[in-house]
Design goal:
It is globular and about 45 Å long. The chain has a single domain, classed as Peptide Deformylase, CATH 3.90.45. It contains three helices and seven strands; from the N terminus they run H-E-E-E-E-E-E-E-H-H. Strand 6 and strand 7 (about 125-130) form a beta hairpin. The strands form two sheets. The protein has a five-stranded antiparallel β-sheet, with helices on both faces. Strands 4-5 form a two-stranded antiparallel sheet. The mean pLDDT is about 95. It has helices at about 25-40, 130-145, 155-170; strands at about 45-50, 60, 75-85, 90-95, 100-110, 110-115, 125-130. The structure holds zinc ion. Zinc ion binds near residues 98 and 142.
C-alpha cells in the first residue's frame, strides 16, 4: 500500500484544469492504485488526480462503504465528461479531503450520465444517481480546478474564509499525509 500526500486548499494544482491522458502506462496504473489506497486510508469516497499532485484527468470513486451503496463497485474515471445532468436538483452537505474539517451544503443535479475511459482505454458510459452522482460531480469539478467551497452560498463563503486561510497556512491537524508546500506536484 502506498499513500500519497493529499494536496490542500491553496495548492496551485487544485486550481488547474488538468490534462487529458493519451495512454495508460505502468506509471498511471500505479498512480491509480495509490489513489485508491490514499482515498481509503483517509476514509474518502472519491479522489481526483490533482488531489495527489498529478496533472492527469483521472478520478476514483468508491462508495461501497456507504449504507445503501454496498453493490456499487469502485470505478476509475479516465478523461471523463459529464454528458447529461438531470433537471431535478438536490441539496446535500459535502466535504473534501483537500479541505479538511469544512462542510457545506451544495445544490447539484440529482443524477448524471458520464462518459469516460476505463484502464483499457475503452469508452464507458454510466448513469449515476443521488450520492454516487454527487461524488462524481464533485470529483469531475476537481479536474476543472473547481472546489465545492466555490459552490456554496454567499453566507457560507463568508463563514469559510478564516478556516480556509488556516488550511492554506497548514495551521491544521490532519490524520492523513498532506502536501507540505503549495507547489507540490508529482507529475
Ligand atoms: Zn474534493
Amino acid at each position: 500500500m502506498s499513500l500519497l500526500p493529499v494536496t490542500l486548499y491553496g495548492d496551485k494544482i487544485l486550481r488547474k484544469k488538468v490534462d487529458k491522458i493519451s495512454d495508460v502506462d505502468n506509471e498511471t496504473i500505479k498512480l491509480i492504485s495509490n489513489m485508491f489506497d490514499t482515498m481509503r486510508n483517509a476514509n474518502g469516497i472519491g479522489l481526483a488526480a490533482n488531489q495527489v499532485g498529478a496533472n492527469k484527468s483521472i478520478f476514483v470513486v468508491d462508495v461501497s462503504k456507504v449504507e445503501g451503496y454496498e453493490e456499487t463497485k469502485p470505478v476509475v474515471f479516465i478523461n471523463p465528461l459529464i454528458e447529461k445532468y438531470s433537471d431535478e436538483k438536490i441539496i446535500f452537505e459535502e466535504g473534501c479531503l483537500s479541505i479538511p474539517d469544512i462542510h457545506g451544503e451544495v445544490e447539484r443535479p440529482e443524477s448524471v450520465v458520464i462518459k469516460y475511459y476505463d484502464t483499457d482505454l475503452r469508452v464507458q458510459t454510466l448513469e449515476a444517481n443521488k450520492l454516487f452522482a454527487r461524488v462524481i460531480q464533485h470529483e469531475f469539478d476537481h479536474l476543472q480546478g473547481i472546489l465545492f467551497t466555490d459552490l456554496v452560498d454567499e453566507e457560507m463563503k463568508k463563514k469559510f474564509k478564516k478556516p480556509l486561510q488556516k488550511i492554506k497556512k497548514r495551521k491544521i491537524e490532519v490524520s492523513y499525509p498532506v502536501s507540505e508546500t503549495i507547489d507540490y506536484q508529482i507529475l
